[in-house]
Q: What sequence folds into this?
């Protein structure tokens, strides 16, 4: 749904629907599968509804021209949130590059960061060009593996349904049931 608040609302509404329809649960699938399907349907319905609202075109030509021009003139990449994400991504990448073995890191920085040619890198480090290519390949592989493991760990924690968030959703659902 790309919006935590909207996702929480969809989840709460889906749980209310499940509560009301629990008598119709036949047991053909696991309860968790049944609940997941209700949540997915609610989320899809909200996304479709949002898309329909976004597709509404103003009746008067030029009615929102100034707003559209203003949005087009602002650089969407310059929001503080995007800047913070970019800074965090850079820190993560720099940390992974710093963790490379010295010989791989030197080649990677000269080739990928400083954009030196294979020949110039080989000359600067006093190694054959074939060694530069091999070390760059291995450095990229090590970076990929390191970043992938960090991404895997982050995926396990993404969209966590625990703690304060879970308590808030349960409290809202229980309030609406009563």
A:
């Amino acid at each position: 749904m790309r919006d935590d608040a909207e996702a929480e609302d969809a989840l709460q509404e889906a749980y209310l629907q499940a509560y009301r329809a629990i008598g119709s649960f036949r047991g053909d699938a696991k309860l968790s599968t049944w609940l997941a399907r209700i949540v997915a349907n609610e989320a899809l319905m909200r996304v479709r509804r949002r898309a329909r609202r976004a597709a509404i075109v103003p009746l008067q030509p030029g009615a929102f021209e100034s707003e559209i021009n203003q949005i087009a003139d602002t650089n969407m990449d310059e929001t503080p949130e995007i800047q913070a994400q970019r800074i965090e991504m850079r820190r993560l990448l720099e940390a992974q590059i710093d963790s490379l073995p010295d010989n791989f890191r030197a080649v990677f920085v000269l080739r990928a960061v400083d954009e030196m040619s294979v020949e110039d890198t080989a000359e600067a480090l006093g190694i054959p060009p074939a060694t530069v290519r091999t070390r760059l390949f291995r450095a990229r592989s090590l970076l990929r593996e390191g970043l992938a493991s960090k991404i895997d760990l982050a995926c396990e924690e993404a969209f966590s349904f625990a703690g304060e968030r879970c308590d808030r959703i349960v409290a809202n659902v229980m309030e609406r049931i009563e």
User: Anything to note?
Assistant: The chain has two domains: 1-57, 77-159. The two ends are 28 Å apart (CA to CA). The domain at 1-57 is CATH 1.10.1740.10 (Rna Polymerase Sigma Factor; Chain: A). The mean pLDDT is 82.
